[in-house]
Design a protein that fits this description.
Blueprint lengths: L3 E8 L26 E3 L2 E2 L5 E4 L3 E3 L5 E8 L5 E8 L1 E3 L5 E3 L9 H4 L9 E4 L2 E4 L4 E8 L9 E11 L8 H6 L4 E9 L1 E9 L6 E12 L2 E11 L4 E8 L4 E10 L5 E7 L9 E8 L6 E9 L2
Parallel strand pairs: 1-14, 2-14, 3-14, 5-15
Antiparallel strand pairs: 4-6, 6-12, 7-11, 7-13, 8-9, 10-12, 13-15, 16-17, 17-20, 18-19, 18-21, 21-22
């Protein structure tokens, strides 16, 4: 039996708060028959530890440029590609690339997205980041039609580029046992922030709909329905309060114009007692004093 060597790229995406997308588990690899093939799975995950600031950029009549800082928090050099990617928000709150909406049967949602790509330029398109250092991406926007309140959006997406030496060397290949199938996974990491272009004054209003119990990997939560009206997005923090204390907080929760409503899952700091009343407060977060957008109540069963 000839030796087989397979280089398999894997993808892992890092999310900003405005981008809370569920990750799909990779397809399982069928186990080989005993004594025929051995699978050795070394995983390479070094190099991917990047951060980006700010978390969100709005361009309007008072602001046309922004410096976005990309920082390598890791201990090895990282090369990243910089691109503008259009995404859509599903009612679940997931952020999905427009190219993949058909997989979710959500083409109608994509039709509501107004792309900001015609208005935005970002440079450079590739950065080499030494360990513990960062570089700047310059973003410039032209103004959208001031005669409309419509909001345009795209996402500045930074994705790591696998190193050129990804894979097996001739020496590593020669060292493999007969019949051994070697899989080497090189993780690719990405992080995105929304770039929003507005020509007029924001007109969105919000309300809170149904609140229901939910769960996260860490324990109990409440699923809060955030509702939106108007042609612009909402953005803020969601706080859960009892009469005595804060029992849950979720920060950086957006509701984009293509979504009339979305679900937001807020982890609870402790289990709720039977009959306990919780008030959900959604407040705008624009760097100034928080302004309440909407509120609603929930009674624990």
């Amino acid at each position: 039996m000839k030796r087989k060597f397979l280089v398999m790229p894997g993808i892992l995406t890092l999310l900003t708060p405005a981008m809370a997308a569920a990750q799909q588990a990779p397809l399982p690899i069928a186990a080989p028959k005993a004594a025929e093939t051995q699978i050795n799975l070394p995983v390479q995950t070094a190099a991917a530890n990047i951060n980006i600031t700010p978390r969100r950029v709005i361009f309007d009549a008072s602001k046309r440029t922004e410096a976005v800082y990309v920082f390598n928090q890791g201990t090895t050099p990282v090369t990243v590609d910089v691109a503008l990617v259009d995404n859509a928000m599903l009612p679940s709150g997931e952020i999905v690339p427009m190219a993949r909406l058909s997989e979710r049967g959500a083409e109608a949602i994509g039709a509501k997205v107004r792309s900001a790509k015609p208005f935005v330029l970002a440079a450079p398109s590739r950065l080499i980041l030494p360990p513990g250092q960062g570089k700047t991406v310059r973003v410039r926007a032209s103004l959208a039609d001031s005669g409309t309140t419509a909001e345009y959006r795209t996402h500045l997406t930074v994705t790591t580029v696998p190193p050129a030496d990804t894979g097996l060397t001739a020496e590593q290949a020669a060292a493999a046992e007969k019949g051994e199938l070697v899989l080497r996974i090189q993780s690719v990491f990405g992080i995105s922030i929304p770039l929003i272009v507005r020509g007029g004054t924001p007109d969105a209003t919000g309300s809170i709909g149904a609140i229901a119990p939910g769960t996260t990997r860490d324990g109990p939560a409440l699923s809060v329905t955030l509702q939106r009206k108007g042609s612009t997005s909402l953005y803020g923090n969601l706080e859960l309060r009892t009469a005595k204390e804060v029992v849950g907080v979720a920060r950086g929760i957006a509701v984009y114009p293509e979504a009339d409503e979305r679900q937001a899952l807020v982890p609870l700091l402790r289990p709720l007692k039977k009959g306990e009343v919780v008030t959900a407060i959604y407040s705008a977060d624009d760097g100034k004093k928080p302004t309440q957008i909407a509120s609603g109540t929930y009674t624990a069963p």
